[in-house]
Specification:
The complex is a heterodimer of chains A (304) and B (149).
Chain A lengths: L1 H24 L17 H12 L2 E5 L3 H10 L21 H20 L3 H17 L8 H9 L4 H21 L3 H22 L6 H22 L5 H9 L1 H8 L2 E4 L3 E4 L6 E4 L2 E4 L2 H19 L1
Antiparallel strand pairs in A: 2-5, 3-4
Helix pairs in contact in A: 1-2, 3-4, 3-8, 4-5, 4-7, 4-8, 7-8, 8-9, 8-12, 11-12
Chain B lengths: L1 H32 L7 E2 L4 E6 L3 E8 L4 E8 L6 E6 L5 E4 L8 E6 L3 E9 L12 E10 L5
Antiparallel strand pairs in B: 1-9, 2-9, 3-8, 4-7, 4-9, 5-6, 5-8
The chains are: A mainly alpha (304), B alpha+beta (149).
Chain lengths: 304, 149
């Protein structure tokens, strides 16, 4: 009898832990805590809910590939189709992990192509992304109406940018709706890695100061990506990607960046606030080469 | 055995409720909050969750120099005003909408790229008659301007 009672108690604790983990995993990107409607079942559960409720929900948001592409173009990047992952590689992606990573990669590629108004390439990569979305069970994320909308707005770059931005990130929220936050994080990881790969590929040396600044800025979103993957660390694919990204982290850490205090100044007429402040980057040619090499290695591993 | 099944049922029901809560809050963000970003381009991410009075949440995001951004915060109509603050990485307050009559949007640009924290809190309604704690969806959406034309 004693054993049975213990088993029941243990089971109850497992259930409560399960309940808590469901709340955690269903947050937003990598939310590490959450609170939900309470059901009065027993004291243990109420106590657990109280603990969960007191915790603050935390979310991490990565830049969209469109935003990253826009930034590197403004910094002087040129378009080069050779940097894209060929759509012919799609047949290689058969597991959920490889499909999710590739979906992120193709999302970044089509964002890069769209910013440079490469319409045919955009259509080609959207079709490839659709196949991957279908493979991941995200049938409604990229449907034929989206392809049609792209075709109808072929000369309206702003509309194309909006459609791509929404579509790519919609897969992320659809996976969270579907209770698959780890896969959502993997898509974002694929997009982030491809964005860094394109940025380091279009940059020839540290003399391209604006591009270098954009690349070094990625150390900040790298931290967000790392936290996002860590919050899904119980998923072996996320844990593996985190591990694979370690050399890139080391390469970023070798670069010195000094930042000043931020001072907000609001323009009374436009109501736009400028967060003034400076950051001084010190990077050697060898450090840039190392970062580029590690990024290529990481990207090669995910597209093979 | 009956208790075991009750627990399994409870866990399953909560999983379903949690999933539908996200879907519901995403729709809220899409229909109610996204229009507030216009003319900024939504970054595509629906940061949305369900919060009760007094509860808070934080969003960590990197913002880039030279880019113009809009942050839009929306709360369900049943909730008291949503307070939001923008903090730097050292948690210094850069903006508080409390001092701007609980404004729902904030437009800004940066001279140097930064990781910022958007801290939101549902205020408490101390004047109400009912003891019931209000609960509803809260969304944080981010947009950027396409100035590359």
């Amino acid at each position: 009898m004693r054993v049975n009672l213990l088993n029941l108690r243990a089971l109850r604790l497992v259930a409560i832990a399960g309940f808590a983990s469901i709340l955690v995993s269903c947050g937003s990107e990598g939310g590490n805590s959450d609170s939900e409607d309470s059901l009065s079942v027993n004291n243990d559960q109420l106590q657990k809910e109280k603990i969960v409720k007191e915790a603050k929900k935390v979310m991490f948001s990565l830049p969209s590939p469109i935003e990253t592409s826009m930034l590197i173009k403004r910094a002087g990047a040129q378009y080069n189709e050779e940097f894209l992952n060929p759509v012919g590689n799609i047949s290689k992606y058969t597991t959920n992990k490889s499909m999710a990573l590739a979906m992120g990669v193709y999302g970044a590629d089509l964002s890069y192509a769209s910013i440079f108004e490469q319409t045919q390439t955009v259509m080609k990569y959207m079709s490839a992304s659709k196949k991957l979305a279908d493979g991941l069970g995200l049938l409604s994320t990229i449907d034929n109406s989206i392809v049609k909308r792209l075709e109808n707005n072929v000369n309206d770059r702003d509309s194309i940018i909006r459609i791509i931005s929404e579509t790519f990130m919609n897969s992320n929220s659809s996976l969270k709706e579907d209770n698959r936050p780890a896969l959502a994080a993997i898509i974002l990881a694929g997009g982030w890695i491809e964005g860094l790969y394109i940025a380091t590929s279009v940059t020839k040396s540290t003399k391209d100061k604006e591009l270098i600044e954009r690349i070094v800025d990625q150390r900040l979103s790298f931290n967000d990506l790392q936290k996002l993957l860590e919050s899904n660390n119980d998923n072996p694919d996320c844990a593996q990607i985190l591990n694979d990204m370690a050399p890139v982290r080391t390469a970023f850490e070798a670069i010195q960046v000094q930042t000043s205090e931020i001072v907000p100044v609001t323009d009374k007429e436009s109501k736009i606030t400028t967060l003034s402040g400076t950051s001084k980057i010190q990077i050697t040619e060898a450090q840039f080469k190392k970062l580029k090499e590690e990024t290529i290695k990481l990207r090669t591993a995910i597209i093979k | 055995m009956k208790r075991v099944w009750s627990i399994i049922f409870l866990v399953s029901a909560l999983a379903l409720a949690s999933t539908s809560t996200f879907a519901q809050c995403k729709n809220f963000a899409k229909n109610t909050c996204k229009p507030q970003l216009d003319p900024y381009i939504h970054d595509g991410i629906y940061n949305a969750t369900e919060l009760s009075e007094g509860e808070s949440a934080e969003l960590f995001k990197t913002f880039y120099s030279g880019q113009e951004y809009r942050i839009a915060i929306c709360g369900d109509a049943s909730l008291p005003p949503i307070e939001f603050q923008i903090l730097d990485a050292d948690r210094n307050v850069l903006f508080s909408n409390k001092e701007a009559n609980y404004a729902k949007v904030w437009d800004f640009k940066l001279e140097a790229s930064q990781q910022l924290i958007v801290s939101i809190q549902v205020t408490t309604n101390d004047d109400k008659v009912s003891d019931q704690v209000a609960r509803g969806c809260v969304a944080v959406l981010i947009g950027f301007l396409n100035t590359d034309k």
